[in-house]
Structures are given as C-alpha cells and as structure tokens.
Design goal:
Elements (H helix, E strand, L loop, with lengths): L1 H24 L9 H16 L4 H22 L2 H22 L1
Helix pairs in contact: 1-2, 1-4, 2-3, 3-4
Length: 101
C-alpha cells in the first residue's frame, strides 16, 4: 500500500506544481509522468533559474534544490517519514514558484 500512497501523493504534487514549474522555463508539461520525471522537471527548473543573474531566481533555485532533495528522499524513505518529506517538498515548491513569479 505504501507504493500506491507514494504514487498518489507524487501525482497530487505534480498536479499542483508541474504547470507552474514548466511555465517558468517555457517547456511543455508532461502528462502522466512518473515521480522520477517530476523530480527531473524540478531539477531542470532549478538549474535554469540558478544560472540566471536575477537574485530572486537564484533564491527560487535554492528552494527547488531543497524540494528535489525531499522528493528524492521520499521515494526511498520508510513510510513513517514519507508524509513529512513530501510536506517539506511541497513547502519548498510553493515558495520557489512564489519567489520566481
């Protein structure tokens, strides 16, 4: 059941944040993506924003770096830690999008 919960939670995060992340770097949103593909999107946006000379984009890049770490850890974490890790990732994703927008 843990794998299903993890997949559902990643799907919810992707539904909430993928379009906004993709819009920041003007790439299409992938539908039906796996958790790994969502993490790849977060990392791609992180890298693009981090290479910018804009301070706010660099700040957003740092938030996305934290989010990617928490998302990656959630894939392999014990079930008891998963909820906390994904909540942390959600906070960093939300902050990054707000900062970069």
């Amino acid at each position: 059941m843990a794998v299903q919960t993890r997949t559902d939670t990643f799907a919810a995060l992707r539904a909430c944040f993928a379009a906004d992340l993709a819009a920041l770097i003007e790439v299409p949103v992938l539908r039906g993506a796996t958790p790994a593909v969502f993490i790849d999107l977060v990392e791609e946006v992180r890298d693009v924003l981090g290479s910018s000379s804009l301070g706010t984009w660099q700040d957003a890049s740092e938030d996305l770096d934290h989010a990617a770490g928490y998302l990656t850890d959630a894939l392999t974490s014990p079930d008891s830690d998963q909820r906390t890790l994904l909540a942390q990732a959600r906070t960093y994703l939300r902050d990054a999008i707000a900062t970069a927008s």
